[in-house]
Structures are given as C-alpha cells and as structure tokens.
Specification:
Blueprint (H helix, E strand, L loop, with lengths): L1 H7 L2 H28 L7 H22 L8 H21 L1 E3 L2 E7 L2 E3 L1 H19 L12 H16 L3 H16 L5 H24 L1 H4 L2 H11 L10 H13 L24 H34 L3 H26 L16 H43 L1
Antiparallel strand pairs: 1-2, 2-3
Length: 398
C-alpha cells in the first residue's frame, strides 16, 4: 500500500517546485547582495541567509501538505476556525500592524514579519471549495450554503483594500471567482452572484469614501501615472518601470552574466522582491526568463489537469484555486515589471524574497500534490477492483 501511494505522487510537479525555489534562492543572493550592503549596511548574504531559513520551513510545510489527506480540510469545525482566525488577524492589523511599502499589512516580531493576507488566499480556496463541494446538489438554489462564501470573499477583500493592499485583494477576489466558475453553477446563478457582489460593494462604498485618503494615496495614484506614461515621469512615479525596462532590454538573449546586473546597484528599488524578474532578464537573458515562466506555466497547467481528472468536487476545486492563485499572482507580477499593468507590489511565486509568500505557496503546492496523488491512487484502486470483479464474474459464468 505504501509503495503504491509513493508511486501515485506527481514527481514532475514536485521537481518543478523545488527547481523554481532553488533558482529563486540563487537569484535572491545575486539581486540583493549589493543592496544589503549599500542601503542597510548588512552583510551581502543577509537576505540570502534569511531566505534559506524560509526555504527550510517551506519544505517542511510542503511535505506536511503533501502527506496529510486533503479531505480533512473539509471538516466544519476546521473551516469555522480558519475563517474566524483569518478575519480576526486581518482586523488586528489596524491596531497592531506594521506599515511597510505604505500598507499596514504586517505583524512584526523582532526580525520576523508575517503577512496575514498571504494566508488568506489559501483560506479562501479551502473554505469556498469545501462549502461548494458540500452543496453540489443545491449549488444553484442560493440557500445558506452558497451565499456565505461570497460574503466572506467580499468582506476579506474589503478589509485588505482598506490596509491598503490592492494587489493582494485583487488576487484573492480573482481566486474566488475561479472557484465559483468551476463549482458547477449555471451561468444564471453566477450572474445573480455578480449582482449580489455589486450590491455589497455599493453598501460598503461609504467605508471606502471615509477611508479614501488612506486607500487612494499619492503612492497608489503615482503607480497609475507611472504606468500610463513612465518616461514622462521617469524621475518620479515612472522611475521603477523605466529602470525595469532598461534591465530587461540590457539582457538580450544571453544576458550579461550571473551577478553582472547594473540596475540592481541602486536603480531598481526592490530588486530581490517585486522586480527580481527584471534582474533575471538582465543577467540571464531570454533563457533565464524562459526557465521561470516555463516552470510556472507547467505548475499552473498541471494543476488544471489535476482538477479536471479529479472526481472529487472538493479536490477539483482545491486544485483549480491553487493553480489560479499561482497563475494570477505570476501574471500580476510579470505584467507589472513589463508595463502591461500598473505595478502592485505583488511578488513572483517561488522566486521573490519573502517568508510569508514562500511558506503559503509551499503549503498550497503540498496540497495540490496530495490531491493529484489521491486522484491517481483512487482511480488505480477502482480500476483494479473492477478488473477483479470482472474476472470473478467471468469465472462464475464458466
């Protein structure tokens, strides 16, 4: 039995995950070494060493997610606990949160920081998938089991927007939408949810009005102006994007060589987090970019394939939500550094520096691998059982 379980794991997903993590660790050292000395007067390997610790924790979390059966997350008490805890911590940020990058989104404990909104992504995926899986027979009836996940989604996004953190709120909202679309609802029912969502936004509009100064800050609006015409605002709001263009353009096909980036020498403000892809493009060229995008695309497409093959609605929606989270976050980061969309401060999955993000994504990957394993194992078990039953019937007829 144990050997059959081991054979059922999707090792291509596991390998891709670790390749991206270790590649990211290497690029974090390259991107952050100069900044650590110049800006913070720390050792050149400060961020590299911290990310190594994050990666060790992330590996443990990944293994836990890959080993424990994903169906335990459907327990009602567990769902109530994680939803209440998530909202509680998000609200506590307004009293005890630490401000970083103009958003009050962090709890600071000495040298360690935790971003609750990162973990809210997975909580949304688990909660909405579990409720809609339990209510499959009434998925279009709009009873008490269908509406609460939408309300929880909207309230969570509203709280995160007020911090303000538009990037994370957008990711969470889009994740929720993908789960709703994949839940089995008819288009008519989805349209009703759209109307309900618009009504809720209208009801919450006074909150946004009174908090408009903290939500639509000069920094947030500056990102819009910098996106629309970065070269016109090259010395101010467009500074980040212009230097990202220079980094990407300088790399060419082969790149300047590992460690040879010029833009990381104080020109790119966050070379190891938001703009790490710009450094990769400058140092490793098209090949480095292709490795990252190819690895992320493989995980997303493989996750969608797992969702399509999984016969359990809960597992299928979990796989869909996790795949969409990685895909949406990747698009928002890559779109920001390349000027397709405004810069939001969202990190690149598995590559950028950050403990909360890496640990959350690792746990999510572990759950995705577990869903893939159980789906394959159960299919092989059913197939074997069918074959045995068929053989028995044949022998009886003889």
């Amino acid at each position: 039995m144990f050997k059959k379980i081991l054979r059922s794991y999707d090792y291509s997903l596991i390998l891709t995950f670790f390749v991206l993590c270790f590649f990211g660790l290497m690029m974090i050292y390259s991107a952050s070494s100069v900044m650590a000395v110049q800006r913070y007067h720390w050792e050149s390997d400060f961020f590299y060493n911290k990310q190594k610790i994050h990666l060790v924790i992330a590996t443990i979390v990944f293994l836990c997610g890959a080993i424990f059966p994903y169906k335990i997350y459907k327990n009602s008490k567990f769902l109530m606990t994680i939803t209440a805890t998530t909202l509680g911590f998000l609200l506590l940020l307004f009293a005890f949160g630490h401000v970083s990058n103009n958003a009050q989104s962090w709890f600071r404990f000495g040298a360690m920081s935790i971003q609750p909104s990162e973990f809210a992504k997975l909580v949304i995926i688990i909660y909405m998938s579990a409720i809609y899986a339990k209510k499959q027979k009434k998925i279009n009836s709009f009873d008490s089991g269908v509406i609460p996940p939408v309300i929880f989604l909207i309230v969570t996004c509203a709280v995160i927007i007020v911090q303000p953190d538009f990037g994370t709120a957008l990711i969470i909202f889009l994740i929720g939408c993908t789960i709703i679309i994949s839940s089995g609802m008819r288009f008519k029912s989805i349209w009703k949810l759209v109307v309900l969502g618009l009504g809720t936004v209208i009801l919450l509009s006074p909150l946004f009005y009174f908090k408009k100064d903290s939500i639509f800050t000069d920094v947030k609006m500056g990102r819009i102006y910098g996106f629309l015409d970065p070269f016109k605002h090259a010395s101010e709001d467009g500074y980040h994007l212009v230097n990202s263009y220079l980094a990407i353009g300088s790399g060419g096909v082969k790149g300047l060589g590992l460690g040879q980036s010029t833009q990381k020498l104080g020109y790119l403000p966050e070379p190891h987090t938001d703009f790490i892809m710009s450094v990769i493009a400058e140092e490793l060229g098209v090949l480095g970019v292709a490795l990252v995008i190819g690895g992320l695309a493989f995980i997303v497409l493989r996750g969608i394939r797992v969702a399509m093959k999984c016969e359990d609605p809960f597992g299928s929606m979990l796989a869909t939500g996790i795949s969409s989270m990685i895909g949406i976050q990747s698009f928002i980061n890559l779109g920001g550094v390349s000027g397709i969309i405004p810069i939001t401060g969202v990190t690149l999955p598995f590559i950028s520096y950050g403990g909360s993000s890496l640990i959350l994504l690792s746990l999510s990957m572990g759950i995705l691998v577990n869903v893939a394993m159980f789906s394959k194992f159960e299919k092989e078990y059913k197939k074997k059982k069918t074959n045995v039953t068929g053989l028995t019937d044949y022998q009886a007829n003889i």
